[in-house]
Structures are given as structure tokens and as C-alpha cells.
Amino acid sequence: MAVLTPEAPPAPARPVRPGRRGWGRAPKYALAGLLVLVFLMPFYIMVRNALMTRPQVSSPDWSWLPDPLSWVNFHDLFADPSVPMGHALLNSLVIAVITAPVGTMFGSMAGYALARIDVPGRRAVFTYVLVTLMIPQSVTFVPTFVVVGAMGGVNTTWGIIAPNLFSAFTVILFRNFYLRFPAEIEEAGRLDGLGYLGVYRRLVLPNSGSMLASLGALMFIESWNSFLWPLVIGQDPSSWTAQIALSTFLTAQTINLPALFAGALVTIAPLVAMFLVAQRFIVRGIAASGLKE
Contact, 72 vs 259, CB < 8 A? Predict the structure, then answer.
């Protein structure tokens, strides 16, 4: 027979002094606010200089706000016939839109194969993928250019896209993610007669949304910011990306700093929008990959 004992009365709550918790966090908030100002200062200077005239930008007297606002820099950015900025932005958009989903799917399939399919040499292949991370990208430029050039990829969009479709970093993140994927779901699929491809397509892929979204966003940002390979393979102005067109404002005989800052502002606008939309998925995907450990 169970014996019921009276429960001990709850301990009285400690009184909290009004405003004590808020004042205790004040130094943290002040430090966080200071860091925010430091990190936002370059963006403020970029916007400020993009709205100034050339004499105002080069003036030794510092001014926090442009007076008057000069919107002509954005007109000059797209009016220069020697710098096809509009066409370069379109090239960057096409390259990033193709590279992000296709490269993410390739990384997902390779990561699943390395994590789940037990075939001879799987560990050696994964070691090779890890080793490729340690090779500087500049070392592989010449052989990659020779191969892509022999295939007729110079001054073409696919010539810029093709070498960037495989990312060892993406493959490793997907492998870590699939190593933690519940094996019971895959076993249930095999009991229903599905093979590896069916399990991946009908069960694994629909449950990988956070990783697909986060790594797709990262590949979009990386592809948009890519500079060296598009500079090497895109020698004709018709194949320039936005980053290449932007660099011409620094290599010209007369440096147009306000147009350069206006171009930088226009170029980063899609990335800021992408980051604001996909920020939650990026953090969730990186956490699910196991890198936090």
C-alpha cells in the first residue's frame, strides 16, 4: 500500500529589485551596439560615397551626409558604353541561378552516396574530397582553363558555370547531415521495395529541406561574388560578370570613385536580399550538418 506524504511547500521566490536585471545587461547591450556600428560603418560609407559628387568624395573635409544628394552616379554606372554593367548583372544572375540549385543537388547526391552506400573505396573517395579542400584554387586554374578551353568554354556562360558545380565543402556538409539521418526511415523504404535511388528521391530528399536551402543560398552568394575564374575564362566584355565590370572602374585611367561605390551598392543588393530571406535556413542547415561540434 503506497503511503502518501505531504509535499514540501515551495520555496518563496527571491524578490527582484526593479530595474536590476536591465541595468546589469546594459554593458552587454552597449558593447553589442558598438560592434554593430563598427560593422555597419563600411556599408554607410559605401552608401554615402555613392550619393556624392567626385569633389565631395575626394575632399579632405569629412562630412557625414552628402549635400546635395547626387543620383547621377547610378546613371553614369549604366551609361558607360565601354562597361556593360546591365549585361554583366544579367550574366551574374544567370550564373548564380544555375550554379546554386545544380551544384546543391550534385553535393547532396555525392554526400548521400558517401554516407549511406557501402561500396569498396568509399573511404578513399571521401579522403580525396577532403584533400581537395587543402589545394589552393589558384593552383588548379591553369589545368582547368586548359580543359575548359579545349572544350570551347572560353567566353561562354557554361565555361564559367561548369567548374563551380562541384564543391567539396558542400559534399562534406551533406555527408555529415546524412550520417545523422534516421536509418529507420530508409529501412521502411527498402521494405516497400525501394532501391537506393528511390529511397533518396522519395524519402531522404524531401526531408533535407533545411540543408538544401542553406547550402543553395551559400552557393548562390559564392557564385555571385566569384571573381578570379570569371576574369580568367571571360575575356570578352559580353561574358563579363558584375564583379568584373565593377573592377574596370579601378583599372581605368580616370578612377570614378562615386560610380564605383554606386556599382558596389547595386551589386550587393541581391546578396543582402538573399541573406535576409535565407538567414534562418543558413543557420539551421549549418547546425544540422554537425559543424557546431
Answer: no
The vertex-166 CA angle with 161 and 171, nearest 5°, equals 150
Question: Rounded to whole angstroms, how far apart are CA atoms 90 and 163?
Answer: 20
Q: How many Å is the Cα radius of gyration of the chain?
A: 27
The secondary element (H helix, E strand) that includes residue 47 is helix 26-50
Is residue 130 within 8 A of residue 122, CB to CB? The reply is no
pLDDT, tens digit (0-9, with 9 covering 90-100), for 246-287:
888 776 556 778 888 888 888 888 888 888 887 777 777 666
Rounded to the nearest 5 degrees, what angle is found at the Cα of 221, between the Cα atoms of 293 and 230?
A: 125
Who's near 85: CB < 8 A, 6+ residues apart? 77, 78, 242, 245, 246, 263, 266
Indicate the pTM of the whole model.
Answer: 0.78
